[in-house]
Amino acid sequence: IAKKNGGRCYLRFDDTNPDRENMEFIDMIQENIKFLGYEPWKITHSSDYFDEIYALTERVISLGHAFVCHEPQELQREKRRLGEPSVHRDRPVEENLLLFRQMREGKFKEGEACLRARIDYKHSNTTMRDPVIYRVKHKEHPKTGSKWCIYPIYDYTHPICDSLEGISHSLCTLEFEIRRELYYWPLQVLEMYRPTVWEYSRLNISYHLMSKRKIEALVEKGLVDSWHDPRLLTIEGMRKRGITADAIKRFCEEVSVTRRGNENVIAVELFDNLVRKDLDERCPRHFAVLEPVPLVITNLDKAIEVECPNFPKNKALGCHSQTLTSELFVDRSDIRLEDDPDFFGIAPGKCVGLKYSGVLLISGVQKDEQGQLRVTAEFFKEGLKEKKPKSYLHWLSKEDAEPAQFRLYDRLFKHPSPGAVEHLEAAINPDSLVVRKGLVSKSSLQEQRVQFERLGFFVRDEDGSWTRVITLSD
User: What is the model's pTM?
Assistant: First the structure.
């Protein structure tokens, strides 16, 4: 938005709670923004302004708009719910200033004292019922160390930082709309510059969880590996999966920004199709076999070099060679022991095509006592006049095949609205990750991303295994 309007965009980290500050998480956010191709005009932290916020808060107290409260947290919560005042609400200004300074000096334990805004304990908007704005935390802060033992609440810190930085527009999702009055309250009291606040609908995508809190629960329960699990639509998860920044940004542009409500759900198929379109333009085609079954061609005495286009829609982008020999590997999913009129793969007596090479007439399909299959066939480079193949299969010769491991990812959830499921464990798709050991063409090993024909789009991991980004169709 800043770029489109000739403005500047800050990246500010809210580090007001030393209990939850994690430098790894901060580094990850910066890496994700860089991955998406954005560069913030400036990177700041809420803690950069702790001195200014403290001085401004003393001014708020001096104006009679805040008081130190000693009531237990649960009692505060109940009184706010009922619209009842704290017994400390009407303390004199001088006493509140003294107590607040004692809070800063570390004279109170955590939970013994907090600073609350003095707004309206009966306000119709419950967020305005004298909320806490400072609390005691005897914790080291990753940026400020032991300088502070009191920390401002995010809802209070956010508008003050926006004002100090001269932010023109503060954007957030609709669940924060109820907090807009609270956002403006300290700025009105202090007569500070007030940015424009605009709320928009949260992004929901079917079959996925987008809530940070709910994803965190998945990680803690061990239902996913981590925040970068490829089955999650976190930026790091999509990076790990092999989804490009261009695909993510194209999707965001497609769905745009609305105020239709936080219950609005985007069909995951839209995202999937944009990912496919993006990868189809950048992934050269190669062969791989997930469950190899040997196929012997009985009438082929001499190997044949087959030219396979890297991009069949644009042959100007080159090709690579595959060697067709008498010993091939085909995929088990393309084989049946008995023929069926609606089946177009390998079966006894069937005529099937081999991509970019010719036609096979299947002589037989055998299954041994261990359940292993073996196929025999005759090869016809120019095809058969009396039989036309209804399918063309991918294949690998024994000469060109290289062992490989595949991680086949699918949707993490079976339910289209996992957030509405009471027990997430019950909605998990047991086949969301299947690991297979198969074969890839040697020619594919020089690529980072490929389309393995008829199987999907894949990216090569650091350990040499292949991760399926997405299938070719739903």
Answer: 0.88
